[in-house]
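Rather than argue in generalities, we have chosen a single entry, letters for residues, whole numbers for local backbone shapes, without further comment.
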Amino acid sequence: MEKQKMVNVQQQIIRLTGVHSIGVIGDPGCEGLGTYNMKIYAGALEETGRDDLTLIAGDLVPAGTKRYYGVIREMTQVLAKNPVYTLRGNHDTGEYTEYFGEKNYALLADAFAVVVLDNAARSFEEEGLSLLAQVLAMDEVSQVIVAFHIPVPNHFILNCVSEAEFGRLKQAYAPWKEKVKYLLCGHVHSRFEDKVDGIPLICTGGGGAWIEDVSKEIRACDVEHHVVHFTETDGKLSYRIANLPDDCYARERRDGILKQRLEETVQGELMAHLKYLMFADRAKRRGMPKIANLFQALAASEYYHARNFYAVLEHPAAFMDAPASFVPGEQFEYDKIYRMMGEYAKEHQYPLAGQAYTGAAAAEKEHAALLSQVSDLNAFSQETIYVCPICGYVMAGDAAPERCPVCGGPSRQYEVFGEKGE
């Protein structure tokens, strides 16, 4: 029988031999266990597979039910390359101990220790604080990582435990403070490094959840999904942050048969998305808003299905480089494919197809121009974008023409994206 990768901790002090590194993944599942989010977690597990063991810094699941715990455990079993330990986050309620065992425990490696404390309810359990003191008092222990989910008070965020709770933690480690090398936490869907009570604090929540703004200094656009590697070398413990590329996981698309089927599935889902959107438009124009609302919802569902399947296939460029990578495709469409097909349609007297290709070519040319502008993401200044719903032409700027330059559609029908559309 295959050994379980996700460890169910059955004793409070676990001695480990041959362990010199640990990879930490923060907050993989609190926003849901959909394929789009789990791709990051899969990539994070591959990255921490370089270490001797992995620790998940809480919020494995969106809610602590058997169903969600079963999903995350099964996925981890398939993808993990080393033993995976967990600590409890505020989303990890309910059946947590049935699946993962002790909430407060210590991993004792040859040259360092990790003490895992449960503060998911914004307070440290007395059992955990007593265990921390017990481990720190050991003569064999000289350097310790103290890990918990919700941050202690720091210089970046207010979403943390109270000063009184931090006081209880400090009291527990005070006699052996010099042994505490790092405080480690998750909970915040970003990352930051600070120093509290003279000890480095590392906050990591980039293992699957959407990255969020932390402050004016730490914005979502400045932080990548990531893991933290702790490594002991020649008796000294250090750490480094490893960013996860947008293309952090590729196992499924290496299977040729599965890749082809996934591509077909994406096409089918997108066709359904378009079909339902078009019917919603027809229902809206006939004065049937409830029917239009239903089909808009169905279209959105089909889009999210397509997104999940495409996430398995996608081979994206890095975020900051992606806009420029889209330009050649747009140029090829309007300069080659659409022009050629428009001429074919005209030659064979297919006026509707010809009109569609001519209009799309004009829009694709504008797409390429806008994508060229946005190649420098931070310098892009267009605040309002207009789209003609009749032919799809795109216009940017503070004002748009009274009629679409391609099809003549009136400006009152334009879809507006940006400040004027809010």
About this structure: The longest strand covers residues 226-233.
